[in-house]
Amino acid sequence: QSVLTQPPSVSGAPGQRVTISCTGSSSNIGAGYDVHWYQQLPGTAPKLLIYVNINRPSGVPDRFSGAKSGTSASLAITGLQAEDEADYYCQSYDSSLSGSWVFGGGTKLTVL
Amino acid sequence: QVQLQESGPGLVKPSQTLSLTCTVSGGSISSSDYYWTWIRQPPGKGLEWIGYIYYSGSTSYNPSLKSRVTISVDTSKNQFSLKLNSVTAADTAVYYCARGQLGSTHCDYWGQGTLVTVSS
Question: What average pLDDT does this structure show over B62-68?
C-alpha cells in the first residue's frame, strides 16, 4: 500500500489527452510538500519528467505538464504518442514516521 | 553530463549483507548542491526510497529500513555505497543510485540500476 495513490492504469488513443492522478494526505502533498513525476520506459531507469509540481527539465516536451491542488497532484499528457507508453510515478515527502521520501504505486499508460 | 553506475554482487544469500557501490562521473560528489540517493524496485513493483547521504556524511534513511541500512560516501573515489544487512527474499530488487537536489526531493540523474537477487 503506497502512501501516494495512483490509478494502476490509464489509456488513450494517439493524439488524445490523458491525466494521471496522485492522491496523498495532510502529511505529504496536503502539507505543502512538492510533487515530482517520473517516466519509466520498459527495462530502463526512471527519468525525471516534472519537478517541484510544474517544472519540466530541459528536453522534456511541453506535452507533459504537472499540477497540484490540496492533497492531490496530476500529470497531464497531451498529443499522446506511442512512445509515451510507460509507467509513471509521482513522488513527494511525508512528514509522518520521522520523514521519508515517498512514491506512488505507479500508473501504466497504454497508448491504444 | 553526470553519470552514475551501480556495481556489486548480483546474488546474495539470505541473512547476509547486500553491498553496492555507485560511481559518479562527470561531476563531483563533494558538491554542496546534491544528495546521493539509493532507491530500489522489486520485480514488477513500484519504487521505494532507501535513503541518501550528503557529501559531509550526514544521512537520512527510510524508517522502514533504517535498522538495516548504512549509506557511506568516499569523496576521494567519487563514490557512495549502500549496505543492507540481514537480507531476505523481500529485498530482491533492482537497486538504483541517483542524484537528489538539495532543498528538494527529486532525483535528476539515475544509474541504470542493478538487479540483486536474495537466494540460497
Answer: 95
